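Human: If only I could read backbone structure tokens as easily as an amino acid sequence. Underneath my words sits a plain record pairing an amino acid chain with its backbone structure tokens. Take your time, and here it is.
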Amino acid sequence: MACPGPPKKLEGPLMITSWRATGACNYSCVYCNVDANMTKSPDELDTEWGLRLVDQIYEFGSQWFGLKGGEPLLRKDVFTLIAHAKDLGLEVCLLTNGYYVDGEILDNLVKYNVYTSISIDGSEKANDALRGQGSYKAALAAIQKLSKAGILNGLSMAITKVNLDEADHIVGLAEKYGAKFVWFNHLVPSGRAKQHLDLEPTPQEYEVFLNHLYDLSKKQYKVDFDFNIHCPHYIRIVKERDPEGFCEWYNKTHTAKCIYFVFGGYLSVLENGDVIPCFYSEDLKIGNIKENSLKELWDKMQNSEFYKKLQNPDNLQGKCGICEHRKICGGCRTRAYGLTGSYFGPDNACLYEPKGDPSKKGN
């Protein structure tokens, strides 16, 4: 989840700490990495612990409290938690499918100045094929309302075989309604997506799609917005397309740099308080906020031999281990684990064939 940062000095190690506030959702998107449905987790943090989590985020030094799901607006206490965060001086951003953005909920989003992003996967036909009939109209209506209220944050699209031709539509909506960013996520084999691997684009399809995103990012638009691409090998594409401007872009981009800034450089809190180092890797539990504070869990991760080893690109295996781009990319470690059984394995969604020594690939 990306949020626009105000010009404040960063007090803690992370600008934003996000919470998957619930696993419940009114949609059943076929690629969902959570396998969300209308049944919330039995061990979901209650209001008291939700408030304590907000306190921990504040004490941890983050500037932003991020809410996602599932569908976070299904929590009856969501605005109690948001109000507490705002009282502490935290900025708040939220990712929603848009279905509930109306009436009192919309009024509260405006009241608390919640920067709200919408998940939308292309034009109506493509979006509804992935997210359910009527979901496009609901998302578009939410985009229009949030834009009018001045709190539309970003538009988030998951990359699948179904919507490979839909990036222009998302970018067009961002321009028309003044979104602050567009966010494109690759498919990760976790949650419900494990049962729908046929939705995964081929390496050739990813290559075409990501090159098209690069072309779109270079166009002139009526409003300024950022391109955030959560697909590590997009970094290699940018370096190939713009070798002279690459270093400047790399230092300021929100594109995923998985082994450096996610594994060992990021924390995500699950609905039950478990803390993981990624958006998706639930089996890599660092601890739980009921037992240790976020600061303690962060320090634990920084001192972990596993994360130190994983952050060294020379420990990667397969083609990622010999790739000359491994120090700027490193591939998606969660996808590598999902498809090879090892967090050090290759990310085979990338088309690129490295020129390194094949004898050094490892197991």
Remarks:
- The first strand starts at residue 16 and ends at 20.
